[in-house]
Amino acid sequence: MNRTTLQGVLLASSVLAGVGVASAADVTLNIESWRNDDMQIWQEKIIPAFEAKHPGIKVTFSPSAPTEYNAALNAKLDAGSAGDLVACRPFDTSLQLFEKGKLEDLTGLDGMKNFSDVAKSAWTTDDGKKTFCVPMASVIHGFIYNKEAFEKVGAEVPKTVDQFFAVLDKLKADGTYIPMAMGTKDMWEAATMGYQNIGPTYWKGEEGRKALIAGTEKLTDEGWVEPYRVLAKWKPYLGDGFEAQTYPDSQNLFTLGRAAIYPAGSWEISPFSSAGLKLGAFPPPVAKDGDTCYISDHNDIAMGLNAASAHKEEAKVFLDWVASPEFASIYANALPGFFSLNSTPVEITDPLAKEFVSWRQTCKPTIRSTYQILSRGTPNLENETWAASANVINGTETPEAAAKKLQDGLDSWYKPAK
Amino acid sequence: MTDLASEQGTEAAQRRPRRWHILVFLAPAVIVYTAVMILPLAETLRQSFFNVVDGRSVFVGFSNFATLFGDPRWSADFWNALRNNFIFFLIHMAVQNPIGIALAALLSLPGLRFAAFYRTAFFLPTLLSFVIVGFIWKLILSPIWGVAPWMLDLVGLKAMFGPWLGKSGSALIVVSLVSVWQFIGIPMMLIYAALLNIPEEVIEAAEIDGITGWGQFFKIKLPLVLPAIGIISILTFVGNFNAFDLVYTMQGALAGPDKATDILGTFLYRTFFGFQLQLGDPSMGATIATIMFLIILTGVCIYLFGIQRRIRRYQF
Asked: Which residues from A are below 8 Å from B276, CB to CB?
C-alpha cells in the first residue's frame, strides 16, 4: 500500500490522499533528489546504515533527472505529492521554496550545530537567521592532469600562473596530447570550470565576492577582469574546434587519454577514476609563488523537509542523522568528489579526492561568485557569465568589454545596500 | 397539387426533430479543441497583461509589453531573436522549398527508376524525432569525432572545415540547414501530389504545341502547382516561427554561441521556464508568446487576404 503512495507520484496522492498516514507502524520517508547517479549508493550503503539504527523508519530514494528536478519538484510541492525529504539546490531555488512555505524551518535541528556558517550559507535566509536545509556536500574546483602526459614532456605540477602556461607550452610543443580539454559550446564549462575555477585567486575569494554583493567592488575592477584575460590566453591550448566541443566531448577527450589537463570540478573524480589513467590534481595556480591560494568550494547539495510532510518527526530523525559525522563519512567515501560540509573532518580514502580536499587546509575556500543574491534578477548574472566566458575564450569579445557588459547588466537591476 | 406539397412541407418542418446529433458529433472536437487549444491561448493572452507585484498577481495593462520593447536588454534580446527567426525562415524559403519543388519535379518524371525508394529516402528524416536529428548532426559536425571533417579530408578540403556550430557567424545557418534537411520531405510530398494531379491532357496538349522539358515545367506545371506552393510557404512560416526543438537540442536553451541561434521559441522557453539560476517569469513569457501569436497571425492574414485570393485556380 505504501509503495503505491510513493510511486504513483501525482495521481495517486491526489486520489488516495492520506493513505500514507494510515500505516503508522512502519513509517516510510520518501526522498526527492536530482542525483539519479547516486541511486545505487543510497540503496546499498546510506539507507541500510540508517535503517539498521532506526527500526520503524523506512527510507526510499526516488530521484528524477537533474534537468527536470526543479520544475518537477515545484509541481509536486504545489500538488502536495512531493516526498517527505527534498534535496535542496543551493541558494535562490531553495530559498524561494522556503519563502513560499514549502520547506520547514530547520534552524532548531540539533544536528545543525555540526555545520559552520559558510557551510549553511547556501540554505540560510539573507539575514542569516533561518536555515532550512541540512548541508550535505560541496564540490571543489581545480585541475586534474594526466600523470603520463606530464612525465612524457617532463613537466612539473605548476604552482604559479607562469609555470602553468609553461607546462601548456611544453605540452603543445610536444604535440602528443591536447594541452587542455575544454570546449566553449556548452558555455557553462567556460564559466564554471574556467572563470569560477581560476577567478577566486584574483578577486581574493570571499573578500571579493562579499564586496561585489555589497557594491564596493565592481565586475569591471581588476580582480574580476584579470581572470578573463587569463582565460583568453587559454585559447591556443584547447583542442581543434573547441568552439564546437561539448562537455561530454571534453570528458571523453580526457578519459581517452588524449588530453593532458582538465579544468575540473571534483564531481568528475569518480567517473574519471574508472578510466584507468594515472591522474593527479592541482589547485588553481597563483600569481607569485607563496601567494595565498583560493579555491572554489561550492555548496552544492543539502536536504530539507517538506512542510507538508505527514511524518515530520521521523523526517527530523533522518535529517539529524544526515547532519551526523557518520553520514558524512559514508557519503563522502561513497561519492568521492562530493565533500562533506560537516565540521568534523572526514577520512577520505580516494587519493584524488584526498588531494582535492587537502586544499581546504592550504587555500582559502569561497563559493561561486554569481550564486548568492546576484543571480536574482534579469539579466541573470550566472547565465550572462556563461556567455561572457565563452566569448572571451573564443576571442569574440575582449575581457574588458565582457566585464563591462556583465556589470551593466547587474547595475540594471541590482542595487546593493549602501 | 402545389398546395398539398407545401402543406406537406410545413408539416415536415414542424415534425422535423431537433437535430441533436449535430451537437453530439461536434461536441468531442469542440470540447477537446477548446480544452487544449483555445483555453490555453486565452489564458496566455490574459497572463500577458498580469504581473506579480508584491507576491500577488495584478493587472498591469500593457506594462509587460512596454518592458519587452522599451527595456534595452529585453528589446535587444527580442529583436535578436526575431531577426534570427527571420533568417531561419528565409533560409527555409530559399533552400528548402525550391529544392523540395525540384525533387518533386524529378520524382514525377515518367520512367524514373527507383522513384519509390527516393521518395521514401527524402521523406524519412521528417519522421525522425528532433532529438535524434539534432544529436546525429551534432555528432556528424563534431570537430573531434565527427565524420564531416574526415569526409572533407578525403576530398582534400579539410581546411574548409570549421567548428561551425560553435561560431556565431555560421551556427544559425548550419542549424537552419539541418532543419531544411529534416523537413525537405514535406514540400516535396505536397508538390509531388499536386504535380500528379495535373491531367495528362494538359501535358499532351502542351507537347503538341511543342512545349517540353524546362519550358513545360515553368510554363505549364509550375503555374498549376502555385496554390500548393502557397500552402507550403505558409506552413513553413508558421512552423519556423514556432520552432524551438531543433535549436534546443543542438545549441541548448541559451542558444549559443552568444545567442547567435536564439529564435523566438528558445527566447520564450528561457523566459517562461527559466534556465539554470534564472528563475522562470511566466508573465514575460506569456508576453513573448502573445507577440509570437500576433506575428504568426499577421503572417497568416497577409497570406490569406493578400496572396491566396489572387492565386488563380484551374478547374479541369
From this structure: 188, 380, 382-383, 386
- Which residue segment(s) compose the domain that A228 sits in? 140-297+365-411
Do residues A120 and A156 share a domain? no
Region A253-263: mean pLDDT is 93
Q: Is there a domain that residue A360 lies in?
A: no
Helix/strand/coil (H/E/C) assignment for every residue in A183-213: CCCCCHHHHHHHHHHHHHHHHCHHHHHHHHH
In a domain, B121, yes or no: yes
Tell me, yes or no, whether A181 and A69 share the same domain. no
B67 interfaces chain A, CB cutoff of 8 Å: no
Alpha-carbon span B262 to B85, nearest angstrom = 8
A228 and A166 housed in the same domain: yes
Q: Which pLDDT tens digit goes with each residue over B186-218?
A: 999 999 999 988 888 888 999 999 888 888 888
Say if residues A153 and A170 touch (Cβ distance below 8 Å): yes
Q: How far apart are CA B171 and CA B168, in angstroms?
A: 6
pLDDT recorded at residue A25 = 62
Closest to B237 measured CA to CA, from B20, B17, B69, B90: B90
CATH number of the domain enclosing B177:
1.10.3720.10
Shortest distance, CA A240 to any CA of chain B (angstroms): 7
**Which candidate, A413, A334, A338, places its Cα nearest to that of A379?**
A413
Is the residue at A359 inside a domain? no
Model confidence at A119, pLDDT cuts 50, 70, 90, reads confident
Number of domains in chain B: 1
Cell numbers at B193, concatenated: 501530389
Q: How large is the ipTM?
A: 0.78
The predicted structure's pLDDT at residue A91 = 87
Whether A358 maps to a domain, the answer reads no
Please state whether beta strands A27-33 and A57-63 pair in parallel, antiparallel, or not at all (unpaired).
Answer: parallel
Distance from CA of A69 to the nearest CA of B (A): 11
Closest partner CB to A390 (pick from B74, B256, B281)? B256
Residues A124 and A150 in one domain: no
Q: Are residues A31 and A90 located together in one domain of the fold? A: yes
Per residue in A154-180, pLDDT (tens digit) is: 989 999 999 999 999 999 999 899 999
Residue B8 inside a domain? The answer is no
Whether B53 maps to a domain, the answer reads: no
- Cβ-based interface (< 8 Å): residues of A facing B: 70-71, 91-93, 96, 183-188, 239-246, 249, 252-253, 370-371, 375-376, 378-383, 386-387, 390-391, 394, 396-397, 409, 412
Mean pLDDT of A314-321: 92
Domain CATH number, residue A403: 3.40.190.10
Measure the CA–CA gap between B308 and B229, rounded to whole angstroms: 11
Number of independent structural domains in chain A:
2
**pTM listed for this prediction:** 0.81
Specify the pLDDT at position A179. Answer: 95
Domain that holds residue B255: 63-308
pLDDT in tens, B84-102: 999 999 999 999 999 999 9
Does residue A76 sit within a domain?
yes
- Rounded Cα–Cα distance for residues A362 and B240 (Å): 55
